[in-house]
Amino acid sequence: MIRICRRGSLTVEAALTLPVFMTGLLTLVSSLYMCLLSQKIQASLLLASERMAVAASDGGSADIGDAKAFLAEGLSEADVRFIYNGIDGMDLSGSEICHNEYINLKLFCSLVPFSDAFGIIKIPLERRCLTHIWCGYDRGYFGDGEYVYITEDSKVYHCDRNCRHLMITVRETSPGEIATVRNESGARYRPCEHCHPKLSDEHLYITPQGDRYHNQITCSGLKRSVRRVRKSEAEGRRPCSRCGR
Description:
Elements: H1 2-57, H2 64-73, H3 77-80, E1 96-98, E2 102-111, E3 123-132, E4 147-151, E5 156-157, E6 171-173, E7 190-191, E8 204-206, E9 212-213, E10 226-230, E11 238-239
Helix pairs in contact: 1-2
């Protein structure tokens, strides 16, 4: 009779202990998987940002709406299963393209551990990736070939990054003076299409090489994006008269 009680006692203890042990084991494995998944999401976010940066440099689409599609490509179906609401649960509403120069992706979502059978536990996850829009190859990226420098709208290429034609000198002027000043080519200055300056503005800004005047020094028309590319990719452009000889 005593043996039977002991066996019954051991059975009861096992019945009570085993679920606690299995729950603890699942929680530990789930925590490790959540850490791995968060790193995978960060890597996918970086990949999405890089793809957008290259697309933007070539004049293609760099819409924030494309980021979610790029992000989904880096995640498997098993990964998405543990994201609350799946792909639709990834919020990128805080993302933006800053001054056509940086892609700032901000992701917020909630992870659901597989130890939670009722979907009650939601672990918030926030990740961010800031990427500069692609501006050319790094030095030595290709062992063969010569590198040159180009700008977006120019029809020439430059052999020297410090060429004066690549540098922008911004000068402040006044509405009363703008009608009399000329650029290096002797042409008059006209209003910028981006910042829409008026002759009633207090301050105007011009560059010696440009032919527009601006009312904001932060106007995108006063910025110049220089890209470093292989010379073979600059076909159709002539060499700069100063540094391309």
